[in-house]
C-alpha cells in the first residue's frame, strides 16, 4: 500500500518539494524560523528498497524534539510568560474603579464637585444626576450625616410639590361632590353602550350634560394627574441612592441611624421594610395622596396587598434605599392627614369632601369610563358622517335646482321671442 501511494505521488514530490514555514508573532517574542524543506522524498525508489527508512520517517513525530519542535516549545513558553505578565500588570475594572474613588475623594464628601470628579453627576438635566447634586449640596452645606441628607432631600422634594397636591385635592373634592350626578349619567351611558342599536343622539346629549356638570362644579381633569409629576423625582432619588450605596461612597458605612448604621448593607432585621409596608397600607386606606380617593373594594384589596408583597422583594436592598421608601411613605401619611383636615381645607379654599355623597356614589370603574369614552368617540364619528351626508345631499339638490328642464327652457325662449 505504501509503495502504491509513493509511486502515485512521485511526480508531485519531484516537481515541488514540500516546505513547512513557521512564522512567529512579533508582539509576544516569536523568532522567525527558516523554511524546513523535506528533500528526503526526492528519490522514491530508495523508499521502495529500504523500508526501514520509511519506518523511521513514519515515527519521526514521536522521537526526540526536532529543531522545529524545540522552537515551537520555546515560543509556547514565551507566550505563557507574556500571559502571566499581562495578568499581573492589568487589574480588573472593579479594582481600578475602587482605587480611583479611594484616591480621588480624599476621605469624605466635603466639597462641591466631589461626585462630579468621580464621574457620578455629569449633568443637571438627568434625574439621577440632578438628585446626586442635591445630595452633595445638602450634605456639604448642612453638615448632616448621610441619613439626614437622604431624609432632607426626600421631604424637600415632597414639600416643593405640595402645591400641586393641594390643587389636585381641591379638584378631587369637587369630583366627589359631583359624583351622584356623574354616576347617574354613567349608568345611562352603560345602558346605551350595551345596546347594539344605541341612540347616538342620546349619547351626545349625555356627554354634553356631563360636560355641563363638570363646568358647574369647576372640575378640571388635568389636575387629577398632578401627583404623577413626582414620578421623575422618585426615580431620580431611587437611582441616585442605589448608585451611591453600590459603589460604595465613604461615609455611608457609618452614617446611618438606629439599628441600620451601615447604609450600604441590607437591613438584617427587615425593620425598614416592615415599617414601609405598614405605612403604605395605612396611606391607601386613608384615601391616597389627596385624601379623596374612592376605590372599589377589589382595587382596595389589590393595592393593600402590594406593600406586603414588597417586603421580600426589597429585603436585599441597601438600608439607605429602603430608608428613603420609609420616609416617603410616612410623609405621605402626614400629607394625607393634613389634606383631610377641614380647617386646613377651609384656609386654603380647598373644596370640602361630602363623605355622604362619596359613600352613596359608585366606586370609580376604569372599564365604565373607557366604555363611555368609546361610545362618545363613536357617536362623534357617526355625527360627523351624518353631517357629511347631509352636506352632500344639499349639494346635489342645489345642482339639480340649477339644471333647467326642457319645458322651462322652451317657455323662456318663447317669452324672449315675443318680447
Automatic annotation (TrEMBL):
One biological process term in Gene Ontology = protein insertion into mitochondrial inner membrane from matrix
Q: How does it sit in the membrane?
A: Multi-pass membrane protein
Q: Does the keyword Transcription regulation apply?
A: no
- Membrane-spanning segments: 144-166, 223-249, 269-286, 298-315, 321-339
From the UniProt entry, list the residue stretches annotated as the region Disordered.
392-419
Coarsely, its chief localization is membrane
Bias (Basic and acidic residues):
399-413
Alphabetized UniProt keyword annotations: Membrane, Mitochondrion, Mitochondrion inner membrane, Transit peptide, Transmembrane, Transmembrane helix
Domain of life where this protein originates: Eukaryota
Q: Where is the Membrane insertase YidC/Oxa/ALB C-terminal domain?
A: 146-340
Could you give a GO molecular-function term held by this entry? mitochondrial ribosome binding
Where, per UniProt, does this protein localize?
Membrane; Mitochondrion inner membrane
A GO cellular component term found in this entry reads: mitochondrial inner boundary membrane
PANTHER family of this UniProt entry? MITOCHONDRIAL INNER MEMBRANE PROTEIN OXA1L, OXA1
Family of the protein in this entry: Belongs to the OXA1/ALB3/YidC family.
* Protein name according to UniProt: Membrane insertase YidC/Oxa/ALB C-terminal domain-containing protein
Amino acid at each position: 500500500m505504501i509503495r502504491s501511494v509513493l509511486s502515485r505521488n512521485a511526480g508531485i514530490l519531484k516537481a515541488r518539494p514540500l516546505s513547512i514555514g513557521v512564522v512567529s508573532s512579533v508582539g509576544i517574542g516569536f523568532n522567525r524560523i527558516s523554511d524546513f524543506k523535506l528533500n528526503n522524498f526526492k528519490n522514491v525508489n530508495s523508499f521502495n528498497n529500504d523500508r526501514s527508512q520509511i519506518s523511521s520517517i513514519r515515527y519521526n513525530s514521536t522521537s526526540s524534539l526536532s529543531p522545529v519542535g524545540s522552537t515551537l516549545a520555546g515560543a509556547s513558553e514565551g507566550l505563557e510568560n507574556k500571559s502571566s505578565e499581562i495578568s499581573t500588570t492589568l487589574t480588573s475594572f472593579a479594582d481600578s474603579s475602587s482605587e480611583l474613588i479611594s484616591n480621588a475623594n480624599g476621605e469624605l464628601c466635603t466639597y462641591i464637585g466631589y461626585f462630579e470628579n468621580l464621574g457620578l453627576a455629569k449633568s443637571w438635566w438627568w434625574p439621577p444626576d440632578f438628585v446626586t447634586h442635591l445630595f452633595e449640596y445638602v450634605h456639604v452645606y448642612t453638615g448632616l450625616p448621610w441619613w439626614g441628607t437622604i431624609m432632607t432631600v426626600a421631604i424637600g422634594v415632597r414639600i416643593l410639590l405640595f402645591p400641586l397636591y393641594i390643587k389636585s385635592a381641591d379638584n378631587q373634592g369637587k369630583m366627589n361632590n359631583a359624583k351622584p350626578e356623574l354616576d347617574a349619567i354613567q349608568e345611562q351611558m352603560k345602558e346605551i353602550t350595551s345596546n347594539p342599536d344605541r341612540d347616538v343622539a342620546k349619547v351626545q346629549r349625555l356627554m354634553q350634560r356631563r360636560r355641563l356638570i363638570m363646568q358647574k362644579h369647576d372640575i378640571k381633569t388635568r389636575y387629577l394627574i398632578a401627583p404623577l409629576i413626582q414620578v421623575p423625582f422618585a426615580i431620580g432619588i431611587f437611582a441616585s441612592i442605589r448608585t451611591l450605596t453600590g459603589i460604595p461612597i465613604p461615609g455611608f458605612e457609618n452614617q446611618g441611624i438606629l439599628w441600620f448604621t451601615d447604609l450600604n448593607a441590607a437591613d438584617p432585621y427587615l425593620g425598614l421594610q416592615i415599617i414601609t409596608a405598614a405605612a403604605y397600607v395605612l396611606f391607601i386606606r386613608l384615601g391616597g395622596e389627596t385624601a379623596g380617593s374612592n376605590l372599589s373594594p377589589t382595587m382596595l384589596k389589590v393595592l393593600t396587598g402590594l406593600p406586603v408583597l414588597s417586603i421580600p422583594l426589597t429585603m436585599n436592598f441597601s438600608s439607605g434605599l429602603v430608608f428613603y421608601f420609609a420616609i416617603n411613605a410616612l410623609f405621605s401619611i402626614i400629607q394625607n392627614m393634613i389634606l383631610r383636615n377641614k380647617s386646613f381645607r377651609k384656609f386654603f379654599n380647598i373644596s370640602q369632601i361630602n363623605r355622604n355623597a362619596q359613600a352613596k356614589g359608585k366606586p370609580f370603574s376604569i372599564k365604565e369610563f373607557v366604555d363611555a369614552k368609546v361610545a362618545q368617540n363613536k357617536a362623534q364619528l357617526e355625527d360627523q358622517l351624518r353631517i357629511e351626508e347631509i352636506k352632500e345631499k344639499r349639494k346635489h339638490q342645489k345642482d339639480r335646482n340649477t339644471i333647467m328642464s326642457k319645458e322651462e327652457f322652451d317657455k323662456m325662449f318663447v317669452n324672449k321671442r315675443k318680447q
